[in-house]
From TrEMBL:
Alphabetized GO MF terms: 7-deoxyloganetic acid glucosyltransferase activity; quercetin 3-O-glucosyltransferase activity; quercetin 7-O-glucosyltransferase activity
CDD domains linked to this entry: GT1_Gtf-like (cd03784)
InterPro entries noted in UniProt: UDP_glucos_trans (IPR002213), UDP_glycos_trans_CS (IPR035595)
Name of the featured protein: Glycosyltransferase
Enzyme Commission number(s) from the entry: 2.4.1.-
Catalytic activity: 7-deoxyloganetate + UDP-alpha-D-glucose = 7-deoxyloganate + UDP + H(+)
Length: 469
């Protein structure tokens, strides 16, 4: 067959999902010369195209086209914080028929569809149209495995987890491979909901639909999560672990304009100059990702904790990060003054470059999966403050399984923040430092020729070619 395979990718409409899927699209375009159709929601389509260096992008990836479908929400709808769940239901109802119409209108029939695990309506569409579908879960293997046990957790009475309840530290017993690791407080945030909650039920349905896909793609690497990947192979005969995807792409296309092309928010590069002037490993980087929001009180506790630790910090504060922010007048003068002396604040940082910078010695993070993986790859120890979705699981893996950071879970009072910052930046907990170096090396090995993730991307390309021929 002369014409190249055509792959359609459908991410869930949020930064942390679009980024790894767009990187995968670029890798398939580059490695397999595939025709790619990347389908965003209209809201994100415009944001992304505004920030992409389009001529450079088209030169590098001439066979990658962007298309869009509605997400079913009004343009003014806040899509961060708790409102992000509205997208679950609106995409399932409104985007599903739109996605079907888009697929049948394409001039080349797709060889396969790669759909985000929480856009599993794509599995229905693919089944109806007789197109093979592969599911991409943008979470860790560990968290993906947990999501397949939600029903069992309900049956065993291990959820709902009641916040503030003393049994938050009870071990979870019904998930194979995680019996001695997970406590109730480490489960995904949806486990705090009642069993019949539409959001919890939505996740159960998504997990079940995912199993109808022919294979699973994960942005992780084999050496980090071997036991969990083996468990997932009991559900999916083929699991492609190809992470860290950002570093795999950067190693293949060095210094390309595609490097920061998957951001929906404009990056403020000025912080790199500020980092250049700091001592090696002296700066704590702080970012809470693209979705979670803080109350004004939590924001101040973190800020005091940072200032009281006496360590220089670079903080990415999104304009919509503080939910009840009522202007700079409500920020104590002492904090503003101290931050001028010892801090650098931007609204959105070039995070990959920041984590790779020699001045960075630690990362205070919300434990989003992309941030976690980027930090592991860069060998930066973490302080985790998880809030929603998979973040509670990630922070437990970071602190207990991989020992590449400390878990601040469920509290952010200024004295605890200060203590953990000192532990990571000053006392340099030995076990954490050694494990951070080891896992960074494993991550680097995985993306190079002969490495597991490098090999899995090649296998994915080959497998798609065989579907096509
Ligand atoms: C969301 C969920 O919160 C997360 O738990 C899930 O794993 C993926 O979807 P998000 O909150 O955005 O993602 O966090 P994360 O997964 O860490 O992704 C954020 C991305 O934005 C990272 O790739 C990071 O490099 C980038 N980023 C973040 C920047 O480029 N600049 C910043 O200032 C902050």
């Amino acid at each position: 067959m002369d014409i190249a395979p055509h792959v359609v990718l459908l991410p869930f409409p949020a930064q942390g999902h679009i980024k790894p899927m767009l990187i995968l699209a670029q890798l398939l375009c580059h490695g397999g010369s595939f025709n790619i159709t990347f389908v965003n929601t209209e809201y994100n389509h415009h944001r992304l195209l505004k920030l992409i260096d389009q001529p450079a992008f088209s030169r590098l990836f001439p066979t990658l086209q962007f298309m869009s479908i509605p997400d079913g929400l009004s343009p003014e709808h806040p899509r961060a914080g708790p409102s992000v769940v509205d997208l679950f239901f609106s995409t399932s109802s409104v985007s599903k028929p739109e996605f079907r119409n888009l697929i049948v209108s394409l001039s080349q029939e797709p060889t396969c569809i790669i759909a985000d695990g929480i856009m599993s309506f794509a599995v229905d569409v693919a089944d109806e149209l007789g197109i093979p579908v592969i599911t991409f879960r943008t979470y860790s293997a560990t968290c993906t495995w947990i999501y397949f046990h939600l029903q069992k957790l309900i049956q065993n009475g291990e959820i709902p987890v009641l916040q503030g309840n003393e049994d938050m530290d009870t071990q979870i017993s019904c998930i194979p491979g995680l019996e001695n690791v997970l406590r109730r407080r480490d489960l995904p945030s949806i486990c705090k909901l009642e069993a019949d909650s539409p959001i919890l039920q939505f996740y159960i349905t998504q997990a079940s639909k995912m199993t109808r896909a022919s294979a699973l793609i994960l942005n992780t690497f084999q050496e980090l999560e071997t036991p969990m990947i083996t468990h997932l192979q009991s559900i999916f005969p083929t699991v492609y672990t190809s992470g860290p995807l950002h570093s795999l792409l950067n190693s293949i296309i060095v210094d390309s304009p595609s490097k920061n092309s998957s951001s929906l928010i404009e990056m403020d590069e000025s912080c790199i100059k500020w980092l250049d002037a700091q001592h090696p490993k002296s700066v704590l980087y702080v970012s809470f990702g693209s979705v979670i929001v803080l109350s004004h009180d939590q924001f101040l506790e973190f800020w005091y904790g940072l200032v009281n630790s006496g360590k220089p910090f670079l903080w990415a504060i999104r304009p919509d990060l503080i939910v009840d922010y009522n202007g700079p007048n409500n920020i104590p003068e002492e904090l503003k003054w101290a931050s001028k002396e010892m801090g650098c604040i931007v609204s959105w940082a070039p995070q990959e470059d920041v984590l790779a910078h020699q001045s960075i010695g630690g990362f205070l993070t919300h434990s989003g999966w992309n941030s976690t993986l980027e930090s592991i790859y860069s060998g930066v120890p973490m302080i985790c403050w998880p809030m929603i979705a998979d973040q509670q699981v990630n922070s437990r893996c970071v602190s207990e399984m991989w020992k590449v950071g400390l878990d601040l879970k469920d509290t952010c009072d200024r004295s605890t923040v200060e203590k953990l910052v000192r532990d990571v930046m000053e006392n340099k907990v030995e076990e954490v430092m050694a494990s951070t170096v080891k896992n960074a090396r494993l991550a680097h090995d995985s993306i190079h020729e002969g490495g597991s993730s490098h090999g899995n991307i090649k296998k994915l390309v080959q497998d798609i070619i065989s579907i096509h021929s």
